[in-house]
Amino acid sequence: MAGYSDRDAVIVGAVRTPVGKGKASGALHEVLPADLLAHSLRELLTRTGVDPVEVEDVIAGAVTQVGDQAVNIARNALLGAGFPESVPGTTVDRQCGSSQQAISFAAQGVLAGAYDVVIAAGVESMSRVPMGSSVLPGSNPFGTGMAQRYPEGLVAQGISAELIAARWNLSRTELDEFSAESHQKAARATKDGLFDAELAPIAGLATDEIIRPDTTIETLAGLRPAFYNEAIGARFPQIGWEITPGNSSPLSDGSAAVMITSGAAARRLGLTPLARIHTTVAVGSDPLYMLTGVIPATEKVLSRAGLDLSDIDLFEVNEAFAPVVLAWARDTGADLSRTNVNGGAIAIGHPLGASGARIMTTLVNALQQRDGRYALQTMCEGGGMANATIIERL
User: Fold this and answer.
1) Is 29 among the residues known to form the active site?
2) Of 29, 39, 96, 278, which residue is the catalytic one?
3) Per-domain residue ranges for the chain?
4) What residue stretches are annotated with the Thiolase N-terminal domain (predicted)?
5) What is the CATH number of domain 1-128+153-393?
6) 278 noted as active-site residue
7) Which DSSP string corresponds to 259-282?
């Protein structure tokens, strides 16, 4: 294990709710998103023992900032959690990587000397605030410049996943094998108690609701393509229509929160750091193949960190769709046996704005459990972007 300096940005606590089904029948549907986030914030304070007056900012990710998730949910949640009125909060949107970006912003603030104690968090209630509902009828969030730059038009993420599967020659069997294994790993981790330390039960839900231990390649093989479109097929004849609900991440509800402090503040408050934020990057990528940014993001973060792929003990690559992780592994040469070791979003779920903090919470714990040193987290994002973060266990 490595030591840390007074000005290092260190993780001193991380917690998440169980992930619920993102539908009206899901266990967390009745919980308002602000209350869902407040639960993780409150639990984080309880577990670290930090007086909330010490917290200098709460930076929270949320993607669909409309309806129940509107009006700066970070501020509303922290006040609902009982934080002093003096604590500010702000809500960020980098699509699926929103709360990973919140972690980066928090760490950068500590490293710059702007913060000593800060919380990065995220929330998404996809059952209450459907994905895409912030785009109002008749609105055009892309503008005329985008239309001129991409005259043939961009596509939805599911079609991007199809294009990736086609370009990397990933078969339906490969995608379904990966997806079934994600459920099996997550089910084993749940049974073995590997998530216990990170979970904060809420609304009667104590474990992740979506994991299906009985998932097999055979059951997944019976699912129909989720994004078949005749016009899209004519435009992209290479598509094999391999993406189904079984090899995609499901609609989900959840929240997570990570406390980041300076090394000096951790010592002053008597906290034991779990890891330090070693290096963070964000990249842009082709918005048509919008989910491939994890490849250049991984290359960039390793280069900036001065590390090699072989130095990384654990990887977390968000399983938005199975081909994202498989294409990433093929291009980077990363070892899939060290990737998403406790299952990923296909099994656990992908509550958009919460996923970056959820994955970081899981990753910090897995690094402790496996006695590793370095871990790398990366997430693809709508519009063609990706974040990557390397942490070092302390």
Assistant:
1) no
2) 96
3) 1-128+153-393
4) 10-262
5) 3.40.47.10
6) no
7) EEEEHHHHHHTT----EEEEEEEE
